[in-house]
Amino acid sequence: MIAEAIETHWSHPDYAERKPTFFEATTVMALHAFQTGQCRINIMETGLGGRLDATNIITPLASIITSIGLDHQKWLGNTLPEIAGEKAGIIKAGVPAISAPASPEVRHVLESKAMDVGTTIDFLDEEEIQTLTQHLQPAKMPGHHQRINLALALKSVDILQSKFPVSKKDLETGVDRTFWPARLQTIALPNGREFLLDGAHNPEGIEALVRYLHSCRSDSQRWTFVVGLLSDRPMDKMLAPLFPLADGFVFCPVHSERGCHPDEVMECALGMPGCPADISISDDPARTIIELSLTKNVVAAGSLHFAGGILKSLNMSPFQSDGAPLENDRYDLNEFMGASGRFP
């Protein structure tokens, strides 16, 4: 099917002059596959922002906007309203829109866009989130931020019931089977110990991680954080929220062209107030996690690329939480080890 899509869509004379990006190419290939396979419903996630994203060529049945934070500022803007303006680009005329709880400034941008195009946008509040998820929160999706995402999904199902009816039993089964790897994922190690793996890759993600740790913290419990960061992230804002919960840090490289050298991360940390005294660097995060787990509570975080590398080193499928060995190398097929550059 991939070969057929390439021949169909990239044999055009304009291709040599207008080479699509990898994401643009795979987006069109996906749409072609969906059409060929006669899928009844497709879920499209934007790659970056929304207004200019390749996925925004479609007119959806519903537009869903998750929590908005400072991320990808180089392309989306340096303030929350600017970023919200880019995200709002997926709001279409006559298409119902749903949003996670938003700050007043973000809410204003989204509401203005909805009004401009002639539709409505529904903002979830805490009461509705609780009502939607009180009987359906899956054990494999801990954390309040994941409850918000679940509520958005359930609200979408409710809005589309007339077009795509879903029974209560099927809904419960779907939620129960939901598993999102590297999002507050507790992983059992071969030595009988456990550690927490989280793909928090921006300040908002780190804040969500910290809120979760506080929610399950006992007395003065602390964690050793094994951290790998990307170079385009604000290191100080990623590290500072972790300091009050940390008894130490181990900084590691991220095997990505965007990876930040651990020496730079350590230098940043040492120059910040409240930095723990126990700080080190390791080139082997998986081995470090196993060793630390014997005497410490360990959390690994900082990047999805970093999380994917750890899972691969531990020979653990991102689609299982029981440590089952991989029969196939599935990492090249998901965002952990995603390709970069242009489509060949």
Description of the structure:
The strands form two sheets. Strands 4-5-9-6-7-8 form a six-stranded mixed β-sheet. It has a three-stranded parallel β-sheet with strand order 1-2-3, with helices on both faces. A hairpin with a 5-residue loop joins strand 4 (185-188) and strand 5. By secondary structure, the chain is of the alpha/beta class. Helix 1 crosses helix 2. It folds into two domains: 2-177, 3-Layer(aba) Sandwich (UDP-N-acetylmuramoyl-L-alanine:D-glutamate ligase); 185-337, Mur ligase, C-terminal domain (Protein-Tyrosine Phosphatase, Chain A, Alpha-Beta Complex), CATH 3.90.190.20. It is built from 13 helices and nine strands. It has helices at 2-9, 22-36, 73-76, 80-87, 104-117, 126-133, 144-159, 168-177, 203-215, 235-239, 262-270, 285-293, 304-313; strands at residues 63-65, 97-99, 121-123, 185-188, 194-197, 223-227, 246-251, 279-281, 298-301.
Main traits of this protein?
344 residues; alpha/beta; UDP-N-acetylmuramoyl-L-alanine:D-glutamate ligase; Protein-Tyrosine Phosphatase, Chain A; 2 domains; six-stranded mixed beta sheet; three-stranded parallel beta sheet; 13 helices; 38% helix; 10% strand
